[in-house]
Amino acid sequence: MSDATIRVLIADDQALVREGLALIAGSAPDIEVVGHAVDGLDAVESALRLRPDVVLMDVRMPNMDGIEATEKLLAHAGEADEIRVLALTTYDSEDFALRMLEAGASGFLLKDAPGEQLLHAIRTVAGGSAIMEPQITRALVARAHADADTSVPEALVSQRDAQLAQLTAREREVLELLVEGESNASIAASLFLAEVTVKAHVGRILDKLDVPDRIHVVIWAYETGFISPAAGRS
Fold first, then answer.
1. Where does the chain have alpha helices with state H?
2. Which domains does the chain show, CATH number per domain?
3. In terms of C-beta density within 10 A (0-12 exposed, 13-18 middle, 19 or more buried), how is residue 183 classed?
4. What is the pLDDT along the chain (234 residues), one digit of tens a residue?
């Protein structure tokens, strides 16, 4: 295998699912499936032993679920620094998504996603970026909108408003689309910008909001009660 090969560990309690994912992932010349895990405990042990680049982590598993397994795995400073977790589930609940992301997952994808989408997600998180199924992002944003009138700590609101005040008008437009789960290409098309320009705007937004990636922009929007002007947000 070349140095560019992405090493993948598949963690799922269903043998047919593991075999199906392995078949899809293994079909790509730049991806190697290095192991399988049957539950969360096995996933943590196997990942620390095999040191894959990406763990495809099922959310619901016996003995230890994917959320706890992700948290425990990524807590191993030094041993798991280069390991990225891509959460996979048949459940499109925003609760699972938010909990997996807060545990440290780099992305969230539904198991019924097309094979090419799975391969793209593996390559994306292996490259150090984050990815989320668009409908999961929309569900998170919808939940934030539904919870908009619930109490958000005043200090957090003040911090959010101070961060938003740092954004230019164009960056605010990009942010609105970013929290809806839009890709850079989609944002570029919507705002009639070059994709490289959108990428630069996204980078500045991450810096000003003090978040590491676009996934955490969604978490930031959820936790701070941010609501877009188009939806009557403030």
1. 15-26, 40-50, 66-74, 94-103, 115-126, 134-146, 154-165, 169-178, 184-191, 195-209, 214-224
2. 6-132 (3.40.50.2300), 141-227 (3.40.50.2300)
3. middle
4. 445 899 999 999 999 999 999 999 999 999 999 999 999 999 999 999 999 999 999 999 999 999 999 999 999 878 788 899 999 887 666 677 778 888 889 888 888 889 999 999 999 899 888 787 766 766 666 665 566 555 678 888 889 999 999 999 999 999 988 887 777 888 999 999 999 999 999 999 999 999 888 878 877 887 787 854 344 333
pTM: 0.73
